[in-house]
Design brief:
The protein is an all-beta fold. The chain has a domain at 233-334. The chain contains one helix and 27 strands.
Length: 334
């Protein structure tokens, strides 16, 4: 296909988002969590401020922080600011009605709902729903089956999420979030359900299959070495840092006119690629072709040979692009 070196790419509109194989509810949690039902199907009464109710096998006990319990299928409803909650293994449900909790549990299938919290969980299929800002969530690997899933709603900004291997569905609103995932089939969504500005988020992708949805500006996506599908439609000034080991990326919404950048620094380290990009064509091959699904689209495919591996980046529906178009627009960097 002939290339038009003088034609800049504009943001494609409209372009359907990539497929959504995993769904996570992205509504914000800004109010008070609701009390969960106990084992007998009855909703426990909201504990008085400064207390909690711990239930095991239908037997409830009034507790106060620090709250410690062992293995078992416990249900805790707590109403203490800055509570410290430590539990063992099992299928455990914790509802924290006040802010600032520290919740540490072992392995099992956990359900956590809180205003703001630091949550540390072992392996298992978990559901974590947090509101507010400044949350910290660390979870181990899922139970390992293809259908196992951990779902995390991290709040509305300045959250830190560290997730282990397995299938993760993670959403975060606002600015300043850092999300790191392991190897698995992961779905990460920024900005769902909040009106706060979505900016300056950092995503560290694992080496599995990642589906990423961006809505804001000024985010940094550190690519894994697996297969990543990224929707940046409507987003601006996004930086995509390719993995040193290569990988396969498909990006919808990449544009040379709104500050988007492919950073090749890690991938081309040690290759002799020059910072001024004058010898970039020695490492990058670019081709354009008709999209396999949409006959009216023209996609741009970059094949980048690094010292540790090869990356293939497909930019959907860009129109005809040449490597010179990308470098002239500062859409490639080292």
């Amino acid at each position: 296909m002939s290339q038009d070196h003088g034609r800049p790419a504009t943001r494609p509109t409209p372009t359907p988002e990539p497929p959504r194989p995993i769904h996570v509810d992205t509504k914000p949690t800004t109010g008070t969590p609701e009390a969960h039902h106990d084992g007998g199907g009855h909703a426990p009464a909201k504990p008085a401020a400064g207390t909690g109710t711990l239930t095991l096998a239908g037997v409830s006990t009034t507790v106060t922080t620090p709250i410690t319990f062992g293995d078992g299928n416990y249900k805790l409803v707590d109403n203490e600011a800055n509570a410290v909650i430590t539990g063992g293994n099992g299928n455990i449900s914790v509802t924290e009605l006040a802010a600032g909790a520290q919740i540490t549990l072992g392995n099992g299938n956990m359900k956590i709902e809180a205003r703001t919290a630091t949550v540390t969980l072992g392996t298992g299929d978990h559901r974590v729903e947090l509101g507010g800002t400044g949350n910290h969530v660390t979870v181990g690997a899922t139970n390992g089956a293809a259908t196992d899933l951990t779902m995390i709603r991290a709040g509305n900004g300045n959250a830190t999420v560290l997730a282990g291997d397995g299938n993760m569905a993670i959403s975060a609103g606002g600015a300043g979030n850092t999300i790191t995932v392991g190897t698995g089939n992961d779905r990460i969504e920024l900005g769902g359900g909040t009106t706060a500005a979505i900016t300056a988020n950092t995503l560290n992708l694992g080496n599995g299959t990642n589906h990423v949805f961006l809505r804001g500006s000024g985010d940094t996506i550190n690519d894994g070495s697996g297969t990543d599908t990224i929707s940046a439609i409507g987003a601006t000034n996004e930086t995509f840092v390719l993995n040193a080991a290569g990988g396969n990326d498909t990006i919808a919404g990449f544009s040379t006119t709104n500050g988007d950048v492919l950073n090749l620094g890690k991938l081309l380290a040690g290759t002799g690629a020059l910072a001024d990009l004058t010898n970039l064509s020695s490492f990058v091959t670019l081709a354009t072709h008709a999209d396999a699904t949409h006959a009216a689209w023209t996609d741009t495919v970059l094949t980048i040979a690094g010292s540790g591996g090869t990356a293939t980046v497909t930019l959907l529906n860009t129109g005809t692009l040449a490597l010179g178009d990308l470098t002239a627009a500062h859409s490639v960097s080292l």
